[in-house]
């Protein structure tokens, strides 16, 4: 029983109405102990017998009728993606499990065998059926597989394929030469891209043009650069002549891209590229130009579109404008955090999870088959600096609208400032229309 009772004055002891409890339990063999019931005090009887006793207990004597004071909700500070992050590269590295850094050449080679087998099987099947109902399906599938071969060669270039530089070089040359990419020339420029990602002037791949360079472009170049689907065919031209505002070629050893000690590497890759081009010419005479067009040329350009589509969207098209840096504001970490992950649905496995791009950019040594796990482990550290990608259906059709919007709005950045964002030229498409007419 409770020994306290509530009243309008607070708490007070309940009068003693029971005898002292027995020290031993009652037994059915014992006679019941008699006790005398004591009446409670009159003041307590009055309250218990009163009709309004519940009111006396549960409510105060006076009620404050003034309206409650509404507290203002705390103001949430808007996240600034251009602000320096509160964590370091070492913090992210420490969050990634140690086994994610292990490179297994047998696993890597198994992906090569798988992809090459699929490429030859698709070509053999399409050539055997030789039906116009089959060719469009073949072109999409084979172009996607050519892109998958590029990604494996890309791993060789980063050294995430294996710890053996010779194995990486041999496999990288075979894969990239087969799709007309100069392996070492690309590898060196891609290294420059990773070392300077997010830097306006020093980045190498899909970096923004300054307003001055943008305004110096002739109308045909602007038409090509900002018109779909033409911009998705840019990669071979980039290999030959790089981006607007930069000089040199991936095939020439004396290009600004390369150091003197890299001359022999560039010559080797250019020789392999030339040998592949010669082989294609020979096959053209053996199989006929139409058959080569259907078997190789169309899938090659589908592969180019995949490459430009994926690499562009890893650095453009977020719903919030992301910063680009210059000068002291740039750092390897801040530049890497402006990259984006993308979900490609069923294509994720086919092109070796290249959509997990943030962790790949920060730590390109991690093999592709550990990137998903490494990304999940790093998310708690990255916080808002990691932008969760939109979920895809079986095919990443949702990214087409994002691509179109970015091409329409992301034209140049200011010539001044160390933290800059893309701006749009409102007169661009009027100029393009005049040019086209």
Automatic annotation (TrEMBL):
<keyword id="KW-0275">Fatty acid biosynthesis</keyword>
<keyword id="KW-0444">Lipid biosynthesis</keyword>
<dbReference type="InterPro" id="IPR021863">
    <property type="entry name" value="FAS_N"/>
</dbReference>
<keyword id="KW-0443">Lipid metabolism</keyword>
<keyword id="KW-0812">Transmembrane</keyword>
<keyword id="KW-0276">Fatty acid metabolism</keyword>
<protein>
    <submittedName>
        <fullName>Omega-3 fatty acid desaturase, chloroplastic</fullName>
    </submittedName>
</protein>
<dbReference type="Pfam" id="PF11960">
    <property type="entry name" value="DUF3474"/>
</dbReference>
<feature type="transmembrane region" description="Helical">
    <location>
        <begin position="266"/>
        <end position="286"/>
    </location>
</feature>
<comment type="pathway">
    <text>Lipid metabolism; polyunsaturated fatty acid biosynthesis.</text>
</comment>
<dbReference type="GO" id="GO:0016717">
    <property type="term" value="F:oxidoreductase activity, acting on paired donors, with oxidation of a pair of donors resulting in the reduction of molecular oxygen to two molecules of water"/>
</dbReference>
<dbReference type="GO" id="GO:0016020">
    <property type="term" value="C:membrane"/>
</dbReference>
<feature type="region of interest" description="Disordered">
    <location>
        <begin position="63"/>
        <end position="82"/>
    </location>
</feature>
<dbReference type="InterPro" id="IPR005804">
    <property type="entry name" value="FA_desaturase_dom"/>
</dbReference>
<feature type="domain" description="Fatty acid desaturase">
    <location>
        <begin position="131"/>
        <end position="387"/>
    </location>
</feature>
<keyword id="KW-0560">Oxidoreductase</keyword>
<dbReference type="Pfam" id="PF00487">
    <property type="entry name" value="FA_desaturase"/>
</dbReference>
<feature type="transmembrane region" description="Helical">
    <location>
        <begin position="223"/>
        <end position="241"/>
    </location>
</feature>
<dbReference type="InterPro" id="IPR012171">
    <property type="entry name" value="Fatty_acid_desaturase"/>
</dbReference>
<keyword id="KW-1133">Transmembrane helix</keyword>
<keyword id="KW-0472">Membrane</keyword>
<feature type="transmembrane region" description="Helical">
    <location>
        <begin position="111"/>
        <end position="129"/>
    </location>
</feature>
<feature type="domain" description="Fatty acid desaturase N-terminal">
    <location>
        <begin position="1"/>
        <end position="124"/>
    </location>
</feature>
<comment type="similarity">
    <text>Belongs to the fatty acid desaturase type 1 family.</text>
</comment>
<dbReference type="GO" id="GO:0006636">
    <property type="term" value="P:unsaturated fatty acid biosynthetic process"/>
</dbReference>
């Amino acid at each position: 029983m409770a020994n306290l009772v509530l009243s309008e004055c607070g708490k007070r002891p309940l009068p003693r109405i029971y005898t002292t409890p027995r020290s031993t339990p009652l037994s059915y063999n014992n006679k019941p102990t008699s006790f005398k019931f004591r009446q409670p005090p009159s003041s307590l009887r009055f309250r218990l017998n009163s009709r309004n006793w519940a009111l006396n207990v549960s409510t105060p004597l006076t009620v404050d009728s003034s309206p409650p004071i509404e507290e203002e909700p705390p103001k949430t500070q808007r996240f600034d993606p251009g602000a320096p992050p509160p964590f370091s590269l070492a913090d992210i590295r420490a969050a990634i499990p140690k086994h994610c850094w292990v490179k297994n050449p047998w696993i890597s080679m198994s992906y090569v065998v798988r992809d090459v087998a699929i490429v030859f099987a698709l070509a053999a099947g399409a050539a055997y059926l030789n039906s116009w109902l089959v060719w469009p399906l073949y072109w999409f599938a084979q172009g996607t597989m050519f892109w998958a071969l590029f990604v494996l060669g890309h791993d060789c270039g980063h050294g995430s394929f294996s710890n053996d530089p010779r194995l990486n070089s041999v496999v990288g040359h075979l894969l990239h030469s087969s799709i007309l990419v100069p392996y070492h020339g690309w590898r060196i420029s891609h290294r420059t891209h990773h070392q300077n990602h997010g830097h306006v002037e020093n980045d190498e791949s899909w970096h923004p043009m300054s307003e001055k360079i943008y305004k110096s472009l002739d109308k045909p170049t602007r038409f090509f650069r900002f018109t779909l689907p033409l911009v998705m065919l840019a990669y071979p031209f980039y290999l030959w002549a790089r981006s607007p505002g930069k000089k040199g070629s991936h095939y020439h050893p004396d290009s600004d891209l390369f150091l003197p000690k890299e001359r022999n590497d560039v010559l080797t890759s250019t020789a392999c590229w030339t040998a592949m081009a010669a082989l294609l010419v020979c096959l053209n005479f053996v199989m006929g130009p139409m058959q080569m067009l259907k078997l190789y040329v169309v899938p090659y350009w589908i592969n180019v579109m995949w490459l430009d589509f994926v690499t562009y969207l890893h650095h453009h098209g977020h719903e919030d404008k992301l910063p680009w840096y210059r000068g002291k504001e740039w750092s390897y970490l801040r530049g890497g955090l402006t990259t984006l992950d993308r979900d490609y649905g069923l294509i994720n496995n086919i092109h070796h999870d290249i959509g997990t791009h943030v962790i790949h950019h920060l730590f390109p040594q991690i093999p592709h088959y550990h990137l998903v796990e490494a990304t999940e482990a790093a998310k708690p550290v990255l916080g808002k600096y990691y932008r969760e990608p939109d979920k895809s259906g079986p095919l990443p059709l949702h990214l087409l609208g994002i691509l179109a919007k970015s091409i329409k709005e992301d034209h140049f950045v200011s010539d001044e400032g160390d933290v800059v964002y893309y701006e749009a030229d409102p007169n661009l498409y009027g100029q393009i229309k005049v040019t086209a007419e």
